[in-house]
Amino acid sequence: MLVVVSVVFGKDVADGGEKQSKLVQREQRQEEGLDKEAGVQKHDDKLQGKSHDHRSSSSETPAQDAGRTANKADEKKVEKLVTGSRAQARSRGGSTSMLLYEYEFVSETEINSNSDADKSYSKRESQIVTKLNATYAFDLTHYDKLGGILGRYHSQSRVNYVLVVVVQMIKCNSGPCDYDMPDLYVDFVQGGNNINNIFTNTSSKTKWNILLSAANIVHTPAISGGGDHQTVVRCFKIIIITPYGLCSYHFWRPEDKIFKRRVNKCSFDGIRNHSLIASATVHSYEHMIEYIQNAKMNADIAYIEADEKLHITSVPLKNALDMNIHTKTTLTMVNRTKVYVEPLCDMEETASECAESRLSLTKLGKSWQVVKQNLWMGLLKKIMEKYHKIKAQKRLDEVSENSDGSFIFSELVDAVSLATTEQLLETFEDKRNDPFLGVFTNALGSAGTMRTHRFARDVVLVRKQQFVSKYLESVALSTKLNDEVVDDIKVVCDEIQWLFTELAKQEQPIEQNETKKVANQNEDVDESKEALDHNRNFIRQIAFAYATLLNRFCKSSKSRLNACNNHKDKNVNEFIVAITKCDRRDVDCNRSALQILVNLPVAGVVPYASQFICSKDNSAQLFLQKNALKLLAFVETEFIETPVINKLLRIFRNACPLAQSTTDQTLTIDVLMNAVPEHASVDDYWKQLRKFKLFRNHYLHRSLKAMSNVYNVKIAESNNHIIESTSKTEFNNEIFKRSDFLISVRRQNGHQNSPVLALTVDTAGLANVVSDSQSEESDMDAYEAPEAVVQLSLFGSSLPPIKIFDSYTGLLSTVWNADGSIINAHETNIIWRQFVNVIPLFNGMTLTNDMIGGFSLKVSGSSKTSILNRDAQSTMINDVSASLDTKLTLVNGNGVVGNLWHRLSASGSVVLDLDVDFYAEPYLFCAVVSQGPLQLKYASTKKTMSYYQRIDNGKPKQNKFSHTVITPPHCYALNRRSTEMCNEMFKHKE
């Protein structure tokens, strides 16, 4: 079933050119003598015995014994072929010798899971084992025009001899190998056995098979003449292109007649490879191959043992996801025959020229990366296209009923990615799906293909404009960074500045004519202003999404990140120029630019943001400095230069031309804590901070007018990763100013902090409305109208902020309507992990690895304010469900051999309760984080099909396992200060 090529490793013979013909004749006579004296079978038995003695292998299996009996019958056919070929060659007067080899291919593959849940089941029930035994043949069809012997170098010029090798399948002895395989032709260089090109004798799409696997095992990237110990270096890194991706490679000779090759540390790019959480899943591949040469005079490879391992795990969820694929393959020479035939090609033709011009073969490629692209590597698309119509409809109907919406959404994204435009339109126009079009729009954005983008742009967003925000927040975090989609969004972004200008022109006449409008015209004015607000919001949403996409492109590789930070990326530069092209007096334009650039915190935004901090401009001080400080907190510390740090220190010391609010001072600390250690030693840094009055012992408790609370809650911990929530609340002069709530995944060493959910509430102008006392802080608030803004961030991508109220009227309306009823604030679905790849294995089969992780979020809340009791209660409920599905499918030429599917899911809620008592100053407040019931699910399914079941479309043998754990709700412990304040407040209420 597989072809092995006769190779000489590490042989470097410097024979004189005049001696070459004698050398060829002498070796031909010696080889003929071996065939006559010892016999082909006796010679093969010795080779077989040596290789098996070296391995200390067990006795033959019944399948192998049957293969031996079949080989004896085939031996007579080979002998007849040899005799006939010699007679034909002599009668024609010209001939060339060709070596014909037969190898036995034996392989065993085991797929299993070592997760904690699987350990409760027997190993036999939870693993897939596939064994096969086959025999294949190959012959040397053509010598290159340089001539020579197998494995020898040309004398003097030392040019490698090049051959075309034909690999043919002979017999499937047992296992899933009985399917058609086209002949395989390999143009390679002897000595290092390097591949020049691979060809096949069929024009149709070739599947990965045993013959290709044999060529992959036998042929190495070792450099001919490069010595017995070598690595392959590419771009100053020890990596090569393999069927698995870019890998590290090592080739060496531990002892005479034995060579080894190791390939590991592979970078699995995959058809799709998307992750919003670092180290969410890790693929580790390694194979080791040992070659044993014939101990006699020729340098044939008598025995090969290949060991291949693939490990799939999750760093934070190692105990829940731990899958292993192990393949062990042996190639054993069972026959070697010399045949005399008429040459197929002229000696002047190269091997590739002979294959393409004379034999009319189809070229698959030179590198394995190209070969893999020209193969049919699995049945994933065929399976999905068969079922996606039914599944898409079913999933949409189940979304509202199933609490674990993330899993349904993950499957929906898979189906949408492969759907045709007609199928998408059919789903969209089905009236039964109207309640679920929001989820459908999220799936279109998450798919990230040009087809889904065009459908969303031309159909969904035209007919259902209310779903614009859902599509844009999903496409910003789509599973595929598609250049065409980004370019299409860029076309709109290029017009942002022009649109902002036009909107401003349209808005001015409306404001001037408001007082001149008569009563019956007021409705038209309101409609015009509403249209302008809608257009402005639409532009902002596009800008937020485009900034996130650009940031993801920048972070996709180190070279791109350097280009973005060094002002060498054209798209990033043009976007920053367009978004910041605002008049300095235009507060709204500059504030929007600062908020949008939080999603693109490259080095180029620092000069723009720094002009608004510690400024003499009163409007910049009041309305822009806070947003500028928030932007600088996201910028890498190496780009915060000394002049900016000096400005930050003046804000912190309240030494700027204008008085500084405590909110801005606390925001400054966030930037300084990140930036200063990069520019000074840690010791000097803390010495300088201790000189500030606010950092002296006990000074903070006596003089700071602000009252804040910051505490961290560890939600879960696993394998050096922590899921935690951080809550910050700030009161200035007993007036609520802002709160930040963050859920993130962090490594314990402090590096790689991956934000999952962040919710920020900012207020301004409340001092004169709520408090009777006068202070410097309240005087600053006098310049601002009452305002409250909420902003949500998902996986580091900020959404446009939403205003709760922005006037006295809005504040009063909010207070009167705060009756404690539940309000659905936001609902979204995101794919946080997707990996799709097809991996060719040494057993001649392919392994399809399909992995997808979904995240569903529903934010709701309630607020109740009592003017009579002068207190307020607010609750924010975050209903979260997350899932990770991993499916391994083993496929051969006839179809699916078996698959192993694992699903991890979790659903629960995180609740933030905030109680405020403003009966008397200082106001009391209590913030508590709690967790509702948490449901953890683990499910596993194993399916296997025999050969006859695949042929007859029978039902597979199936084993299913599931495990569910429900943890009770509980509140997280507060720190001492928070506990004291909560106790004091509740005592007052009693």
Automatic annotation (TrEMBL):
Cited InterPro entries: MTP_lip-bd, MTTP
Protein name: MTP large subunit lipid-binding domain-containing protein
Residue span, MTP large subunit lipid-binding domain: 735-988
Ranges of biased composition (kind: Basic and acidic residues): 16-57, 71-80
Region (Disordered): 16-89
Repressor is among the record's keywords: no
GO MF annotations in UniProt: lipid binding; phospholipid transporter activity
One Pfam match: MTP_lip_bd
GO cellular component, one term: basolateral plasma membrane
Main location: endoplasmic reticulum
Record GO biological process: lipoprotein metabolic process
Subcellular compartments: Endoplasmic reticulum
Top-rank lineage group of the source organism: Eukaryota
Keyword field: Endoplasmic reticulum, Signal, Transport
Organism: Anisakis simplex (Herring worm)
